[in-house]
Amino acid sequence: MLHRIDDAETSAVADDNAISSALSLVTTASGLSIEAAKTCVYYATATHGMQELPCFPILNVQGPMATGKTQAMRQVQGLVPFPHCTGTNLTEARLRDELVKAKNGVVFIEEADTVPEHLIACRFGRDTARGSVNRISGPGQGWHPEPVDYFGATVLHKRRPFNDAATVSRAITIKTQRKPGIYELRPVGEAVRLGLRKVWDRAKHKMSEVELIGRAGDVWRPLFAVALFCDDKEWLEYAREELEKANQRLKMGQEFEPDQMVVHALIAASGEEYCRLVSLTEIRDHLRKEYNWQPSASAVAHMARDMGFAVKTSHGIQKVVVDKVVLTKAACQTGLRDLVGDIWGLTDLDDIVSGSKVGTHSDVSVRNLVD
Q1: Against a cut of 0.70, is the pTM above it?
Q2: Three state DSSP letters for the chain
Q3: pLDDT of 146-186, one tens digit each?
């Protein structure tokens, strides 16, 4: 007796074929584990629903040299709609322009260790990806603000972790590893790409079944929907473990924001002195040892100035002027009030913050330190 195959069964077979074909392409092109390769495929599938989603995660392919990071990215590039590749070593303005070109699409950035992370983080959500830039409208017409929108998916590869906690919390990171054999980059047929589109059209109805909360939940939700549709219990178990790690990283990032880490470094460097010059190198060394974070010297100087500290040059070396008043205010603003109070034995922090009491130094003493 012949078994009649109905439309639903035919669609299910086509869905399975599209996912398995895409998985085969990604695994043969790189040193990714099967779980990480599935993450790439489910991510690529979800990009077909970009127009319908309020936010979309960053996919960060991280690993040592010669482990197939670029190959994995190029294979994923063939699976997504509207791919857009940028160059390397882009300035902030150039990167922003590239992201605008890739609005509602998928941008691919190779060698992304030096990209301005705040632009990548803002691209995650439709609300945060809107802004304006000043452009010249024509000869003699001067500058005028022009609205820009660069929402979309971002796939990049890095050798080092992200510096910014906000970017970390918006990203899914997979790691390549060395494996024997040759990484084979194969062409992606249009049938596979269209098949993934059809998978998303059916999988998007699973979004309401994904019981995830918080920022990390928003990041992983589209991929969970695809995996639920595919009934991939093994990957879902793997993803829940990764999600728990992401929640812990987010919690750590909330506990130690960049400004707070810099203030902590200044407190540690100043000791019991009420006025001291602390070099940017000393601050960066503290951040590297305590937080495994290595921002540039210019970034540290910028954060220090934003919090009210003076940055001076002494004997050709840039140093932050740390004094009782500014450091106490910065400590109170970043949640380190008790720490600075304990170190200096201060009980009059409110008076210092309000300005009713002044520090123990004058502009002359600061000038003497610098000179």
Answers
A1: no
A2: CCCCCCHHHHHHHHHHHHHHHHHHHHHHHCCCCHHHHHHHHHHHHHHHHHHHCCECCEEEEECCCCCCHHHHHHHHHCCCCCEEECCCCCCHHHHHHHHHHCCCCEEEECCHHHCCHHHHHHHCECCCCEEEEEEECCCCCCEEEEEEECCCEEEEEECCCCCCHHHHCCEEEEECCCCCCCCCCCCCCHHHHHHHHHHHHHHHHHHHHCCCCHHHHHHHHHHHHHHHHHCCHHHHHHHHHHHHHHHHHHHHHHHCCHHHHHHHHHHHHHCCCCEEEEEHHHHHHHHHHHHCCCCCHHHHHHHHHHCCCEEEEECCEEEEEEEHHHHHHHHHHCCCHHHHHHHHCCCCHHHHHHCCCCCCCCHHHHHHHHC
A3: 888 999 999 999 888 787 777 888 999 998 888 887 888 88
